[in-house]
Structures are given as structure tokens and as C-alpha cells.
Amino acid sequence: MSGGGRWRSRHWQRRRGGRETLAVEGEARRETLAARAQGDWQPNLSVKLPQTSIHKRRESEKLRLRFCGEIRSIEIARMDPDALAKAFVEHYYSTFDSNRANLAGLYQEGSMLTFEGQKILGSANIVSKLTGLPFQQCKHNVTTVDCQPSVTQGGFIVFVSGSLQLAGEQHALKFSQMFHLMPTPNGSFYVHNDIFRLNYA
To answer: Which residues of 146-158 are buried (b: 16+ CB within 10 A; e: fewer)?
Structure first.
């Protein structure tokens, strides 16, 4: 084969590989769009992208995890707590800042929120509290995220610190928040415990 032919062959392979990758990602996105309104977090073990130069880690260590209609791929048996926490925190606060009512799917009837000392039980009551807060728009800026496996099998403790900027306010409020994430029988996660405090000191 001539030099030009070899170049065209390699070029065609690269182009074909790129289309295959986009096709896989597009199919995964379409399959999960229907779950967007559910709000829960369910890792999808079936999505496998073609191996490329940027996917050289072992399959058991590769983690691509997003929420609500995005590609979500993780090996639960070797779950990275820090990556899990980062993905959860990103989803939680982006949902909080855009539409707090959509957080309902992350809680269950046995979930408890302690908000500035006030204890609230159950998904409906928790969302009612969050949507009833005396501000319409806000922006969470996360500073730190720490995560540990909990004593309960499959659970995780996530601790967050950061600042909360309210619309129309000049100064941001510092806050701390703790989540206890628990697995469900279908492989998703929900918030079992949630503790929120503003830091005035």
C-alpha cells in the first residue's frame, strides 16, 4: 500500500472510531433521559466506551459518573469514595440552585434533615422546608468535600464546606453540610441523613 493509502486508512480508522465513540455516548444519553425526573442516583454498569489513549486505566478502576440523564458508569465493588462524593455534591447543589423541588427524589420517607437545629423527617417535609426558605435564588460554592465509608454496609458519609451566595446580598454565607448516603435495593443511593449549619464565626 502506498504512503498515501496508509495515511487514508489510518485517517479513516480515526474518523470511524470517533463516530463510534459519539454513537455510544449518544445512545447512553438517550437511554437515561427518561430517568431525569426520578432524581435518584443509579450507577449504570453497562456503559463501556471504546478504549483510547485517555482510557488506559484498568476497567475495574475506571469511573465515569454523572447524574440525571448523563453517562453514569462505576464499578460498585471498588467504588472510589472521593469520586462518589464529588459527583453527588455537584449534582445536589446544582439541583438546589436551579430547582429545589427536584431534590425530592434524593430523599425517602425515613430520611431526616437537621437544618439549623430544626429536625425534619420525610421526603415531602424536607422538600417543603427547602423550597420554603426565604430566598428565591442562590449559588453554592463548594470549598472542600470529604468522604468516608459508613459502618452500614454500602453507605457513605459526605462532609461539605463552602459558601452560599444569596441573590442581592453582597457577602456570601459560610456553611457546612453532612450527608449520609445509603444504597437502595435497585443500586441507587438516597440521602438518609442531612445536617446543615451556617458558620457565623
So the answer is: ebeebeeeebbbb
